[in-house]
TrEMBL record:
Keywords: Acyltransferase, Chromatin regulator, Chromosome partition, Transferase. Residues 43-213 form the N-acetyltransferase domain. It holds the Pfam family Acetyltransf_1. InterPro entries: Acyl_CoA_acyltransferase (IPR016181), GNAT_dom (IPR000182), NAA60-like (IPR045141). It catalyses: N-terminal L-methionyl-[transmembrane protein] + acetyl-CoA = N-terminal N(alpha)-acetyl-L-methionyl-[transmembrane protein] + CoA + H(+); L-lysyl-[protein] + acetyl-CoA = N(6)-acetyl-L-lysyl-[protein] + CoA + H(+). Coiled coil: none annotated. Its EC number is 2.3.1.259, 2.3.1.48. This is N-alpha-acetyltransferase 60. It comes from Emiliania huxleyi (strain CCMP1516). GO terms for biological process: chromosome segregation.
Length: 249
């Protein structure tokens, strides 16, 4: 466990400041079907809703060594942030599944949360995880692909970044398989010494990055970004109009 929520950084949390939130852009989302990421295994992804918070806390407590404080969860609904959650509409009813029920039914079994940096260019993946009973079924890959796609649709970011504990071999293998690369700008082979402080112990992390420009081109976006021809007024409009919206992915 972390000594304090504010001590942990990177993929399990992000300490680069939470006030530069004016980058929020929430625009209409395509459906999961249109995205080619249709529901499978009974798990569907959508934006986090306030009523999901107890289930999200429970899942993140099981997933990460970091204990996130209230301000972390409050920030998830701030401009510049978004969180996708995977909901299993019909979790096992044989008693083997113990928790994380959400309002309206179902269980919260996966999460991916993103913060857009103030220069609107980088999407920082704060958390990504899948309930241990649902792993190795492609859910993590779906969550990551959806959040990269949503980043392209909601912002003009050209790069996704994250930190992952160097000892977390599963996650390192996962991100490698998803095309993430070491971010040499943060250290040789992306290695950041003592990036995390967990229960008073320092842990190294790898800084990883993912170039979003090919994905933007795959999505049919013209060179220069989806909103380049609108100028910043669209950002203000989108922020005031769609902020806090809840979309099904
Ligand atoms: C990392 C994590 C999100 C992967 O989720 P998942 O749903 O099991 O991943 P997927 O099934 O989509 O796996 C996609 C690919 O990633 C790689 N991968 C995933 N888990 C792996 C593991 N334990 N060992 C080796 N490779 C792994 C594989 O290449 C896999 O493809 P394959 O199953 O066809 O071999 C999950 O293990 C997890 O939640 N871990 C705890 C939280 C965490 O550490 N998050 C990352 C840091 S924020």
């Amino acid at each position: 466990m972390a000594a304090a929520a504010g001590d942990a950084r990177g993929c399990t949390s992000d300490d680069r400041g939470g006030d530069d939130l004016e980058a929020a852009v929430r625009v209409s989302l395509v459906s999961a079907e249109e995205a080619g990421l249709e529901e499978s295994d009974g798990v569907a992804f959508r934006d986090l809703a306030p009523a999901d918070l107890p289930a999200l806390r429970e899942l993140q407590t099981a997933l990460f060594p970091v204990r996130y404080n209230d301000s972390f969860y409050e920030r998830l609904f701030s401009p510049g942030y978004f969180t996708l959650v995977g909901i299993d509409a019909a979790p096992p009813s044989d008693g083997s599944f113990e928790g994380t029920a959400v309002a309206g039914g179902g269980a919260l079994v996966a999460v991916a949360s993103v913060r857009i940096t103030s220069d609107w260019r980088v999407a920082y993946i704060m958390t990504l995880g899948v309930d241990h009973r649902y792993r190795r079924r492609g859910l993590g890959a779906r969550a990551l692909r959806l959040c990269l796609r949503a980043t392209c649709e909601r912002s003009r970011c050209q790069l996704a970044q994250l930190h992952v504990k160097s000892l977390n071999e599963a996650a390192v293998a996962f991100y490698n398989s998803m095309g993430f690369q070491a971010d040499e700008a943060e250290g040789h082979a992306g290695l950041c010494r003592a990036h995390y402080l967990i229960e008073g112990e320092p842990y190294d992390a790898f800084a990883l990055k993912y170039d979003l420009r090919p994905l933007r081109r795959d999505l049919g976006e013209e060179e220069g970004g989806p909103y380049s021809h609108y100028g910043s007024s669209l950002y203000s409009w989108a922020q005031s109009t769609c902020e806090g919206g809840c979309a099904i992915l």
